[in-house]
Amino acid sequence: MNDGSSMASVANGSTPVPVLRIEPSRGWVSLKLRELWEYRELLYFLTWRDIKVRYKQSVLGVSWAIIQPFVSMVVFTVFFGKLANLGPEGVPYPIWNYAAMVVWTYFAFALTQSSNSLVTSSALLKKIYFPRLVVPIAATLSGLVDFFIAMAVLIPMMLFYGYAPTLNTLWLIPLILLTFVTAFGVGLWFSALNVQFRDVKHGVPFLVQIWFFATPIVYSATDRITDPKWLAIYSLNPMVGVSEGFRWALLGLEPHPGPMILVSAVVSATIFVGGLFYFRRMEKTFADVV
Amino acid sequence: MSDLAVRVEHLGKEYHIGAVQTERYRTLRDQVARSVAAPFRRASKLLRGQATGAAELDETIWALRDVSFDVPRGQVLGIIGHNGAGKSTLLKILSRITEPSEGFVEIHGRVGCLLEVGTGFHPELTGRENVYLNGAILGMTRARINEAFDEIVEFSGVEKFIDTPVKHYSSGMGLRLAFAVAAHLDPEILIVDEVLAVGDAAFQQKCLGKMGEVAEAGRTVLLVSHNMSAITRLCERAILLANGEMVASGDPEAVISTYLGESTLDSSWNQTEDEAAPRGRESVFQSIRVLDGRSQSTALVPFDEGFQVEVTYELPRPVRDLVIVVAVFNHRGEVVCVTWDTDSTDLAGKVREAGLHTSTCRFPSSFLKPGRYLISTVAHIPKVQILERRLQAVAFEVSPVGYPFEVTREGLVTPMLQWTVDSSRAQADALPR
Prior knowledge:
The complex is a heterodimer. By secondary structure, chain A is mainly alpha-helical. Chain A folds into two domains: 1-29, no CATH class; 31-289, no CATH class. Chain A contains twelve helices and two strands. A two-stranded antiparallel ribbon of chain A has the order 1-2. In chain A, strand 1 and strand 2 (15-22) form a beta hairpin. In chain A, helix 8 (172-196) packs antiparallel against helix 9 (199-213). Chain A starts with a strand and ends with a helix. Chain B is of the alpha/beta class. In chain B, the strands form five sheets. A six-stranded mixed beta sheet of chain B has the order 5-6-7-3-8-9, with helices on both faces. In chain B, strands 12-20-19-15-16 form a five-stranded mixed beta sheet, with no helix packed on it. The longest helix of chain B is centred in the N-terminal third of the chain and has 20 residues, at 28-47. The interface between A and B is large, with 45 and 48 residues.
């Protein structure tokens, strides 16, 4: 590993003085996660800013966090549930859809925000040094508040439709993590690419829309695809595992999505790790190009 | 034990600026083919990790080349140079915003950077919230901001509005708050770029005072400024950059005079020697010169002597209402004064015949502050036509010879004015003995 800069401590009398060496880096560079940890307060403040500013000057304020997935659910229930009859057997369409919609809304938001994050923060990039990873992480994190608010609506809905939380509900935690890692991983690639090519900015909304239809949110996939081989291929889309996993954890729907989640997790981890290194490699050009 | 704060060795930074287009697209088909192929070419470059900002990136420039210097602990170093000399690039490398292309920098100690005040201020957040956000961006811990919060607010002078969103602030208030946060950074090495150009004169004075404090507290400061008086006042040493290279280093006064002297501008301009000057009937101005008291062309005028600006011009035909304007700019590009040759002559509204004319303006002694000045001239018929403009045609310097005032005296000009002090009533109110 050849680093852009490295920290070392040199004894200077009694107090150690940190010595920083700034030099050109070549090729792949280390992730410098320790430095990222040192900048956790900045991460906290940037996330806090994004949350704080989001609903300023809006009348409905934070209710938007609920309105978006909820109204979508109502529309989908009418069109896909009733008219097209794409829903599953034996489960009320609204709760079935909302269970996936709520996590999709977070995913779509986090992906869009993190992809645009570097370009939006160009003023910061050009004027201040900090580990650039902070920017897309903050963008991905800031959507979580909305997500938890929207999740809260799920509790009365479940009670209304007669579903009680079980121990399986705890599986939501790794599933949320999987969603985060997927959105962040893709966001890493896109935010770094967006610095060079603003095409990304125009492409992302389009991609989100296609991705939405490639994920079993408005239609039931497991009713139609039964061959495990095809299900595994289908699960290469990480959001398939998340979506099916959410329904299983909340509503106890079979089949058990374990294998699907596993495939999704592997794909997601690959995107994520690749994204991290790609991002770090491109990082040195950000301030010059953005 | 090392007493070095910053060590810069053979530092260079190369920028890709994109090649000048080598061949023009000849046909639409070519163009379409190229635009189709371009994204793939770029993508392949990108995946190899090459910086690609433009389609073809063979053309590069060195914004900085082979710069080496050391800064001992506690020194205040001034960095000067014309725009584009590489000052900002140097600071950006020192503050780790961008990577060098060659050489290295060693920094001993915590660094605080002020390349621009108010970076990261969000208009929707209140002053209080912005203090915390900006502090975090500048690398302060929350504990440190809590500790300094009252001082920051007091320094900025916006106490009353601290819980108002910053978007309702005047630009001056926002800047003051931003500088106040920055001024409470507590690094061992401070890198500063032109923050002194913020706010009104009183606030600038406050900022300079703060910088002086920082310097006196034994901090190492690297300061980039166009304000030469700030450099002489604050810095123990200065370096001069020109075209990305370090051309002088040492005593600030000496470096500044090198800087002022290296300008390509002359104290006289002559149409026949200027290849860029327009030819034929377009050309009105023949020569522009600065003359001393003995009518000799000069580039250096002592403060306590008067001087003249002589403009020679040729009119191709008789011109009614012609006015020759002389404008004096200081080294920061501020207009010091503008004067018309019809101000004190009876030429206004009259016709000037075709042929050669000379308009001379006499400037009084003890008027322009010591420093470098530029002169622009215009020949125009007010509100009708501009015959010719020569912007920053000549340069000259007012030397501090015979300058009786404090160097720090403010003002665009420092004229010696007539004062009278009447003390005749002092006797009456005096205490009886």
